[in-house]
Amino acid sequence: MKALRWHGVKNLKLENIEEPTAQKDKVKIKVEWCGICGSDLHEYTAGPIFIPTETHPLSGDKAPIVMGHEFSGRVVEIGEDVTKFQVGDRVVVEPIYACGVCEACKQGKYNLCEKMGFYGLAGGGGGFSEYAAVPEVMLHKIPENVSFEQGALVEPSAVALYAVRQSALNVGEKAAVFGAGPIGLLIIEALRAAGATEIYVSEVSEERKQKAAEFGAIVLDPKEVDVVKEIRRRTNGGVDVSFEVSGIDAVLTQSINSTKIGGQAMIVSIFEKKASIHPNDIVLNERIVTGIIGYRDIFPAVISLMAQGYFSAEKIITKRIKLDEVIEEGFEALLKERSQVKILVKSE
Known about the structure:
Layout: E1 2-8, E2 11-16, E3 26-35, H1 38-46, E4 65-66, E5 70-78, E6 90-93, E7 96-97, H2 103-106, E8 117-118, E9 131-135, E10 139-141, H3 148-151, H4 154-166, E11 174-178, H5 182-194, E12 198-202, H6 206-214, E13 218-220, H7 227-234, E14 239-244, H8 249-257, E15 259-267, H9 279-283, E16 288-291, H10 299-307, H11 313-316, E17 317-322, H12 326-336, E18 342-346
Parallel strand pairs: 11-12, 11-14, 12-13, 14-15, 15-16, 17-18
Antiparallel strand pairs: 1-2, 1-4, 3-5, 3-9, 3-18, 5-6, 6-10, 7-8
Helix pairs in contact: 4-5, 4-10
């Protein structure tokens, strides 16, 4: 079967590899759609970050690995001891590997597992392929009124909803989002679901500014205004919670300084390089800075919200391509075309 494998920085190859089988405790699915994630781009331009160059302790795999962790599909085969799924089920993948025995796992915080990895980044298979054999524990069923395209957005939507849930935001409060890429846009949607009354977005791309406005945000362009001053002016001192979703050093500082006295800045991005912040920006206003990684115990809530119309695929997808086009029309397009937001790849 065809699959996209990571061999090194700027070295992705669409190759023919052996089709997986549904071994014990695994489910084989025919991949329908897979989204290109910001994490995938980071691996392409600056990896390895999550991709293991030595054998991963949970996946048992190492580079070159099949990429793709935001995907949906239909069950075509079940392995021994699989009890919750049957052939024909429509599913999405929650791609977190966790050991189950470390201190974080014992506390139920499996996304903080000391050996944590992502299926499609840490090996084992991936969604940029025709078929994938996935551990049963990673799968969630989706209802008929949630399309496969929508299903490919469950994973990034989970990041967004988890970020908002982990924040201190209360109904009726104000928020700011720095960066209107896919996760930033989905955070706007999650903030709407959580009852935020005003949502400010800092973004420079015209296409992404337009998308943010469609999602109901108040859009500010840092090329045109001092975003921090403007947010503080409009909110009488700053927002209750900000979300940094750009991975840019200077933007992290803006995100922190846009919050009120005692406000909170949530760091959602994965940074390729070290960032420099001035501790006094936090100390002198008793602000709180919090980071999150991935998500936990949130896929069912995301799927439920999708069934109600939240996290619309039509509002965020800007391009649909075939697996054969994934490198030039997918990864390279996201690097060259700021107008692109979310690109979905169709398995063939």
